[in-house]
Amino acid sequence: QIAALASRHRIVIPDRTGYGRSEPIDTLATDFHQSAAEETLAVIEALHLDRPILWGHSDGAIVALLIGLQTSDRIAGVIVEATHYVRHKPASRPFFEAIVAKPRAPFLDVHSRTWIRIVDESAPGDDFYSGRLSELRVPVLLVHGGRDPRTEPGEFEALRAALQTVPSRTLLLPEGGHSPHSEPATMAQVTVAAVSFVEAVRHRES
Can you spell out the DSSP letters for 26-85? Predict the structure, then answer.
């Protein structure tokens, strides 16, 4: 995707707190998506980015959508992939418990413990957007793998229903898992859809 977009667009890839080359952390609050949204907005302001298009994957998709809800005037659109909608994810709890039992990296352990708390503290029907996702007013490209193991039954359908009033495109990839942009079976389709979406948004902005 970088190769396909970099010739015509500036690409900024920040390391969120606890990720990549940013400083490690020992704890993570259950509202870390909101904290990450505030952090990302600070990056946009510090770099004087003029209405960027955000691309968020998994937790990052929540972050991008929260920014769109809170400050739609600051961004031009969002690409969201493997998007979490519901907070209550009992089917994913064993996955996070397995990581905690045999942590591969400190942050994965912290992250998994936090997700377990999110699951345990949530009720069925709770979503990450306080029921406001239909209020989003920026264009959305929704990318989703039909075999995403982190998706609860009915979650993708609820997400699409919440976005019905939003100017959005959907790329549903039956063979895709939790990371369609990097999976050999789906990455080319994601790239084509992303380039088309970015060009359309930029044309609309001009």
Answer: S---TTHHHHHHHHHHHHHHHTT--SPEEEEETHHHHHHHHHHHH-GGG-SEEEEES---
